[in-house]
Amino acid sequence: MRLKSHIFVSSLIRRVFALGGYAAVLRKGAEEAGAIFVRQRTRLGGETLYAPAPQNFFEDEGDTARRFEIRLRDVEAETIDSTLSSEIRFDPDCWVVEIEIEDGSNLLELVTGADR
What we know:
With 116 residues, this protein is of the alpha/beta class.
């Protein structure tokens, strides 16, 4: 069974604060299984959007890990806003979490094209 979304988000926020960063829930989604998008801001003004990885990155039906892909990297805030608006129209039960930390990649299990 996959970890419930609200528990995963709470854990992520605690880990960000423990590393000296800042985190907040911008949009609360379905507590059980809402998709989670993570918006990362850095001191230099760039933003990165982490989105749920596509299903082909999962080994089998019993794979319960939450994996993410980098959807956008080092872009303007307006680009992230536009992408998130589209995602929310497609899935109104999704979560959006904002983190402010220089390197958030170790907070999430990331996939790459080589993982397919």
